Amino acid sequence: MDYTWLFQLAWIIPILPLISFLIVGFLGAKFSDKGGMIAIALVGAAMALSLAIAYAALTGGLPSHGAEGAYYTDTIDWVVLGSGFTLSIGIFIDTLTALMLIVVSFVATLVVIYSIGYMGEEGDRRRRYFTEISLFVGVMLGLVLASSFSLLFIFWELVGLCSYLLIGFWFERPSAASAAKKAFLVTRVGDVMFMIGLFILFNLFGTLNYVEMFDPEVLTEVDQSLLTWGCFFMFGGAIGKSAQFPLHDWLPDAMEGPTTVSALIHAATMVKAGVYLVARMFPLLVHSYEWLPLFIAVIGVVTALMAATMALNSPNIKRVLAYSTISQLGFMFLGLGTGAYLFAVGIYEEGSLGYSAAMFHLMNHAFFKALLFLSAGAVIHFVHTEEMSKMGGLRKYMPITSIVMLLGAISIAGIPPLSGFWSKDELLAVVQSAGSDNWVFYLLYAMGVCAAFMTAFYMFRMWFKTFTGPEGEATKHAAAHMAHDDHGHKEMEHAKPGKIKEHTPAVMTVPLMLLAVLAVFSGMAALFFFGTPFYGIIFFEEPIVETGAEILENVFTAWTTYLSIAVAAGGIGLAYLAFYKKSIDVDAFVNRPAVKPLYNMLLARYGFTKGYDWVGVKAVYGFSLVLDWFDLHVIDGIVNGLARGTAKAGRGLRRVQTGFVQTYAGVVVGGAVLMMLLGYFILVLLGVVRPW
Amino acid sequence: MVDTESLVAVLPELLLVMFAIVIPAIGLGTKDSRILGFTALAGIALAAVGPALQILEDRNAVFFPSDTGLLVLDQFSALFMLIFLSVAFYVVLASIYFTKDDKHQPEYYTLILLATAGMMVVASATDLFVLFVGIELTSLSSYALVAFRKKDVKGAEAATKYFIIGGLSSGFALFGISLIFGVTGTTDFTLMNEWLIANPYPNDLVPVVWLAMIMIVVGFGFKIAMVPFHMWAPDVYEGAPTTITAMLAAGSKKMGFVALFKLFFIGLIAIKADWEFLIAIMAILTMTVGNLMALNQTNIKRMLAYSSIAQAGYILIAIPVATDYALAGGIFQILTHAFMKGGAFIVVATLATVAVGESINSYKGLGKRSPFLALAMTIFLFSLAGIPPLAGFASKFFLFWAPIQAATDTGADWLIWLSVAGIINSAISLFYYVRIVKYMYVEKGESEDKLVISKTMMAAVAICLILTVVIGIYPGPFYDACWNAAQALLSYSVPLP
Asked: Which helix (H) or strand (E) holds A181?
């Protein structure tokens, strides 16, 4: 079937939320719900269109372009640069875009619906919230639809700006305001690299349009060294945006924003932009020198392991999820890096599987992590704290939330047949198989398995501490509050005595249940229930088309699968013993002299927080102060001498009594002398004049 | 030969001077700032017709006088005339309310028009000496404008400093020009370059040319506030009436760049190898010092002044790269900077009329008190920091890309460091811009009263705001104009044999 007419409408997708941004922004205060319904309607419409286009794209509706694969693109010239260079803007749709459209639009819609309940107590501020979130959804959809790296970069900066605004939503909290600033500035470090990468690639290709850059003939001709460095700097941008080592430390702080924002921006969508970028430049990566994909894989696994360790003892429910997000993003980079490495050395089928597995994990992660965050949001909404030590025993009061969150935890831990299992297992299997080409990948595989073990452990630690065990003070307080509330309501008559209903409103639990369905089934659905399994849809050059039975056979005959399941079960079991049965004394363990420093180091995030402050406050700001002092004292000192000399020489200057002007004039004269010396020195260096 | 046709080239300047003479005459009859201001606006609008047609209809260059050609109206000078005239336009528009209670209003508008005429002379000069006369016309007018509120101690002090340092710099420049004349026997840029090509190394006189070059750079470097000739800028920007600060930052500073472009891209291009490293070092030094000093300023005008110094450093990148892309990028950055920095200063001026001080602290809570001004300021600051899709991003993109393009084109790899320095510096600059935004929206101010803003000042801010956004979203035609201007300027430089 010809879907071209549908693809031609794709530019409307980002426009819809932007209309919501304008309507809510200007008129939101006039509505009783401060624009929530408008945001739902327009974001929902964008979702409907996104899903239709994604369906068309994933069922083979994309126009084929021979060796370059199947894609649809439509661009207009934006700036024509003198001779030959053109920057254009437009849309580009391939299966990767389609996948991102599904993930972003679907999670965004659910989060906006959920926000009606979650942000219900915020009063007039909801207008600002719905304005900013609409803007975010619009620019994020624009980012995935962009037809060139230059347009992508513009949206990239805009999602960063939205993230800044939304982290700082509760700006009266100093911690939120400074977290917003930190996120904005740290990701800018990555953006600097991104921009350098853009320039290098622009120069290399004379264009930044995907279609023209990914032309196989062009790719084999370009200078491989420049290509590698260009991609290296672009990856720097991905490190910042996707919170990878060593720019990861902004993400835990970003949890100061509303939990809905954490779920949407800092788990399901914006932080995936870095992964998306690397996936998008995959054709460039496979033509780079091999060290770059390997470097990406190493950064990924180091981040995955490091973030997982930090999640082990974090006392804050949202921080655990934040570390977990960083860690899972690391897995995706591990998959992409490994895939590109295999391509670069000529192993195509496995390489394509690495790419597919990373994208598969991206999709599954978006669902289960959004679920986990929104469940945590429901918990926080109920107990009004984020400290897990004050929770406990919540299962009784929040049966629905506890079950969906448990499903999310099982999914991320990697227990079959939930979705997290399929993608994580496949991803690790690819890394393991790459070991036969380069032994380093065995090491990466071992580290990945360790991280997977920790993932299972910290997720269940979180679940047990929140929902089971004795009731913490916040739980008791919330329960008392709830009982008090309910006495005032007539609904009590309907509730059976002795049974306590879920206290979370339906507008919040329904999105949770929908996400729970996906967290359980998205993996299986993508692999088994559609005509072509996921690997045959989202692939790079070498589709792996297998039937469901073949996939099952391949998965369950490999020893790596059983190892994955074993470490997941082991992690859950350890958490069960430590935090449910309490047969392991955790407190005694961490207070051992050998463990205590390690424990504190994890709480201090390996010192990265201090490190950033040192660079930002001490180094840069300090240098600025030094410069200021230098200007005031040293230059003044030199200059006063100079100025005195000048003043003696020129009668005009002597009449001026304000010391400052003398100083400045002195600097001008001194500067002129310095410039002459410098210029002379350069001329000597160049050999233009001989020193005489 | 002076004929009527060649008069077209000087018509814009003549119109401005005419209005500059008429305004004091009107001033004898009325003291109403609105009448005087709108007369000045009419003059500016009339003067803009010629340059605008020049660009829109892509006309041929017109020389005045038509045989020897001291001044020229071409795509380059027309573009800069339009930039200077638009700066003058929004400055006058904002001044109508800003200076309504001041004495000597007619003189104020006359001086603004004369200063603008001087800048336009610089834009169209083809001769070093004519260019110098233009600079002096602007300088003398702006000394007086800085001291316009003569009862204001800060303003008077700033004017004194400005005058003395300005005089010193003019001395340097003039000395340099006379040396060049003595050696090459010409002050015409093209002929100067021809002489340099005809008399290559080894040549006893070249060191003198080189000394002259440094002298002139010192003199013009004062105008653009190049480090280490920048120290006057924060004091003068702080002390001057804020509308005049906007003019200094957005107009007169850009005039210095025009002068440097003409000197280096036409006059001295033959000895490029001698000065490229020097200017490159100056560029990096200027942007770095400007940004680092801006980090801990507590007065918003001083902060913007240091940020202007940093921006000057970025624009300087264009000179050592010396390709048409670099020049076009530099011109584009000048164009966008004229609106984003000028706009920021006009916001400060507007706030000063409603008793919001210049200390950064007094911007706390502005988001609630005047949503429009806070939003405008945010957009100007983000644009200065180079956040897309605003004008500052577009221009920085082209400017920072140019060195890399040149490096791959010519093999001069060291040029890449100019891009890297520029990009890192603009990342640093975000620190101090975000701080203002945070103060405006996040922190609670002492007062929460809504501010009532004059309509004309709002209009001036709105002009800058619209351009900052439009250029960012649709840079095509604007970049084209800059590209054509760059081509027009480079057409005078004689290619090396």
From this structure: helix A174-205
Which string of DSSP letters, residue by residue, matches B292-334? HHHHT--BHHHHHHHHHHHHHHHHHTHHHH-SHHHHHHHHHHH
Structure confidence by residue, pLDDT tens digits, B383-432: 999 888 899 999 998 999 999 888 888 888 888 889 989 988 988 888 88
Query: Could you state, in order of their start, the residue ranges of all structural domains in chain B?
Result: 4-490
Is there a domain that residue A389 lies in?
yes
Name residues 64-123 of chain A within 8 A of B (Cβ).
77-82
A551-593: pLDDT as tens digits: 888 888 888 888 889 999 999 988 888 888 877 777 777 777 8
Average pLDDT of the segment spanning B276-285: 91
Tokens of A593: 């002299």
Task: Dump pLDDT digits (tens) for B140-185.
Answer: 999 999 988 878 888 888 888 888 888 888 999 999 999 989 888 8
Q: Chain B: nearest CA to A1, how far in angstroms?
A: 36
- Structural domain including A672 reads 609-686
Does one domain contain both A532 and A617? no
Query: Does residue A266 lie in a domain region?
Result: no
Q: Give how far Cα B231 sits from Cα of A4, A86, A655, A661, Å.
A: 61, 41, 20, 10
Residues A655 and A511 in one domain: no
Q: Closest Cα to residue A282, out of A201, A330, A337?
A: A337
Strands (E), B30-88: 62-64, 71-73
Tell me the two tokens of residue B292: 């680092």
- Residue A91 phi/psi, 5-degree rounding, is -115, 150
Q: B235, A158: Cβ pair inside 8 Å?
A: no
In B, which residues are within 8 Å of A80 by CB distance? Answer: 476, 480
Contact yes or no for A664 and B165 at CB 8 A: yes
What is the phi/psi pair of residue B159, to 5°?
Answer: -65, -40
- How many folded domains does chain A comprise? 2
* ipTM for this prediction: 0.80
Contacts of B404 in chain A (CB under 8 A): 199-200, 202-203
Nearest to B75 by CA among B336, B327, B400: B327
Could you give the angle at which helices A291-312 and A596-603 cross, rounded to 10 degrees? 110
Residues 150-179 of A with CB under 8 A from B: 150, 153-154, 157-158, 161, 168, 171-172, 177
Amino acid letter for position A390: K
**Is A124 within a domain?**
no
